[in-house]
Design brief:
- The protein is an alpha+beta fold and 353 residues long.
- 44% of the residues lie in helices and 22% in strands.
- The chain has a six-stranded antiparallel β-sheet with strand order 3-2-1-6-5-4, sandwiched between helices. The protein has a six-stranded mixed β-sheet with strand order 10-11-9-12-13-14, with helices on both faces. Strands 7-8 form a two-stranded antiparallel ribbon.
- The longest helix is centred in the middle third of the chain and has 24 residues.
- The N and C termini lie far apart (46 Å).
């Protein structure tokens, strides 16, 4: 990115941050982000694509260069193809020459044919909110040199959306997610940080589990979202029977639950996770006798992580490995794999149960 673009970006970052401090409405920030990216990079298309928390489908929230019909009908699944990998891994997608990788181009391209593009994830507190997309009519119109600026614009969009959602939550001043009767994510994050401080002083360890309901969206489409919510509440109830007063559990995502097991080494946490996995597999839920399975990732402090950031990153990656191994699995990392990069396919750095 040349010096002129760099100066423009810094000016726009400052402008957007100033607006962000004075509003709880993310729509205005989204508009500014898209408009300023188009001005700087002369994009053909720019879009902010957000995960709908009710359905976990991706929707276009703000855009330039897309027709009203396309944005209205756009409904992409969260975990499919290159975009799914982007949202899981957090690694940007850069296409500098569409002819050099037609498969990737076809997966990420939106309404208009493009010659180059960039996609960067929108992430807050290790929760993926969506992604920022920009494309260009010229080959090498967008390159890897532009990724840091795009990533900063994505962070501003994420901060705006998170601030808007927190504002709505704070209106209720309620720490309980009543669809599951577990903690909301904010209070759970406070609990996690408190346990880290205590563990650092005492030398004890604790484990964190992240579980996801397999095929939850299909269940919701088949039985209805009310039944799917009742199913999730039933799974949470079975989870709570395995919790002590010193443990905690919170709502992490649409169909994800995060669990903290205090003073619990990895072997014990894996045992608890696998028992919960078995109980869910053998149970039926709701008056419709719905059956499902769960996938669980496990990580342990301080063997696998030394900060809350590392704990949440590793447990999310472990969940992804459990799902990639075929679902209805528990996955954890060996101690020697702690705080390293994700293992590549075929590397035996983790353990699926």
């Amino acid at each position: 990115m040349n010096h002129l673009k760099h100066e423009e970006c810094l000016g726009y970052f400052s402008e957007i941050l100033k607006v962000l401090t004075s509003t709880n409405q993310h729509e205005e920030i989204f508009h500014l982000v898209v408009d300023r990216i188009v001005r700087i990079f002369k994009c053909q298309t720019c879009a902010i694509v957000i995960v709908d928390p009710r359905t976990e489908y991706l929707n276009v929230e703000n855009s330039y260069g897309l027709s009203h019909t396309f944005t209205k009908e756009f409904r992409r699944k969260l975990a499919t193809g290159a975009v799914g990998k982007l949202l899981w891994s957090g690694n940007p997608i850069v296409v500098t020459d569409s002819d050099a990788d037609p498969q990737l181009t076809s997966e990420v391209q939106m309404e208009n044919r493009m010659e180059s593009c960039i996609c960067v994830p929108i992430v807050i507190d290790f929760r993926t909110l969506g992604y920022l997309y920009a494309d260009h009519k010229q080959k090498h119109g967008l390159t890897s040199d532009d990724v840091p600026s795009m990533a900063m614009f994505a962070r501003l969009a994420g901060l705006a959306l998170n601030k808007s959602r927190l504002f709505e939550e704070n209106l209720h001043l309620d720490k309980i997610d009543h669809e599951t009767e577990l903690e909301k994510y904010g209070p759970f994050l406070e609990r996690l940080n408190e346990n880290i401080e205590r563990a650092q002083k005492s030398g004890e360890n604790f484990s964190v589990m992240l579980l996801d309901v397999d095929n939850y969206k299909q269940i919701a489409l088949t039985y209805g979202y009310d039944s799917a919510k009742e199913l999730l509440k039933g799974i949470a109830a079975k989870l709570k029977t395995q919790l002590r007063t010193v443990d905690g559990a919170g709502r992490y995502g649409f169909d994800e639950i995060v669990v903290l097991k205090a003073d619990t080494p990895v072997a014990s946490a894996v045992s608890v996770a696998d028992e919960l996995r078995r109980v869910v597999e053998e149970s039926s839920f709701t008056a419709k006798d719905i059956r499902t399975t769960i996938s669980i990732g496990v990580t342990t402090f301080p063997q696998h992580a030394r900060t809350s950031d590392e704990v949440l990153t590793n447990v999310k990656r472990a969940l992804f490995e459990a799902q990639r191994a075929g679902r209805n699995r528990v996955f954890h990392y060996y101690e020697e794999a702690s705080r390293n990069e994700m293992p590549a396919h075929g590397e035996n750095q983790g353990h699926p149960v």
